[in-house]
Every structure is written in C-alpha cells, then in structure tokens.
Amino acid sequence: MRRSEVSPDAPSSNVCGRTTSITLFTTQRWWGRLVMPVLFVATRAVPKSLAAMDSLSFISFASWSLVRDIPDNGPPQTKRRLAKAHMFFEVHFNGSWAQYIDSSVRILTTGMKSFWASSLTFPGPLPAGPFQAFFRVHEVDVDHYYCAYPDATVTMVRSALELEQRLDMFAHRAQ
C-alpha cells in the first residue's frame, strides 16, 4: 500500500525513533540515463557542489543511483533489462516527511531541479505541493529501517563525534 493511501500519522516501517527514511524509484526520461551518471561523477569530483545539502543539519544520509537492470537470483531467473532507466533515491533525516520536503525544496531548489528534472512527471520543486505529490506517488515503503541512534538527532551525533575528537586530543595532551 502506498503511503498516500494511508493516514500520514500511521506507524511506518520508514521511521525509527527520531529518524525517517524516504525511498523513491522514478522513471527517467531518455536523456536521464546519459546525464545522471555525469552529474553523479561531477558531484563526487566537486564535493562543495553539495554544500547546500550538507548545511541541512537534519539530513544524515542521501544517495542517488541509476538502475538499468533488475538482477537475477540465479536460475531459472535471468537479468532483466529495463525499457527505461530508473533513479533510486534514499534519504535519512530527522523530523517528519512534510518537514523534510518543505525545507528541502526551499533551500535546495537548484539541486532538486538538477537531480529530478530527468524524472518523468517531475513538476519542479516549487510550489512544494506538487513536488510532495510527486514524492508520494514514487515513494516505496521499506520492509525494515534501522537507525543506530534512533533517539539522537543528526546534530547530536555530529556534536558527540566532535566532542569525542576533542576529548581524545585533550587526553593525548594531558599525558
């Protein structure tokens, strides 16, 4: 059952404590399978191009992949080539689904256009309503979602890691 068919307050396998996961699978336009790999390489080569997303302290993980084939599990199955490439997107964040979409489209407008324009039926990031509908139509609920620190926010974990590093430096100097 798609999330759009249930109450937004219904318990979901996509939520673990304070953390929520969104997984999308979108069909690409013909040129998406050519452009998206270039975009992926460019963002890896120039990490500062993702600085706006890194500034959103509530996002702990985001990943995009281009899927062209459905693999097999061995005989009698065979690998199946998809007629059109699909983009697989996964993001983990603190807060609600609507908060993530609302914040992301306002701060990451250019990035949203860059990563989603090759998807069929992409309405553009603004206004947020049609973009939320696009996400809801393409969202896939996960069977299981695990978060190592379900009661901690991304900011809390980053602060703890920074504190641990400073404590290690202090302990080293104290010797």
Question: Can you lay out the helices and strands and say which pair or pack?
Answer:
Layout: E1 15-16, E2 19-27, H1 32-45, H2 51-54, E3 59-70, E4 80-94, H3 97-107, H4 109-116, H5 128-138, H6 154-174
Antiparallel strand pairs: 1-2, 2-4, 3-4
Account of the 3D structure:
The N and C termini lie far apart (59 Å). Helix content is 39%, strand content 22%. It is globular, with a radius of gyration of 19 Å. The protein is built from six helices and four strands; from the N terminus they run ββααββαααα. With 175 residues, it is an alpha+beta fold. Strands 1-2-4-3 form a four-stranded antiparallel β-sheet, with helices on one face.
User: What is the average per-residue confidence, as pLDDT, rounded to a whole number?
Assistant: 85
Reported for the largest beta sheet, the result is:
4 strands, antiparallel
**Helix content range of the residues, please?**
25-40%
Question: In what order do the strands lie side by side in the largest sheet?
Answer: 1-2-4-3
- Beta percentage is 15-25%
Separate helix tally: 6
Order of helices and strands: EEHHEEHHHH
Distance from N terminus to C terminus (CA atoms, Å) equals: 59 Å
**Uncertain runs:** 1-7
State the secondary-structure class. Answer: alpha+beta
Strand segment tally: 4
Shape: globular
Q: Radius of gyration in whole Å, from Cα? A: 19 Å
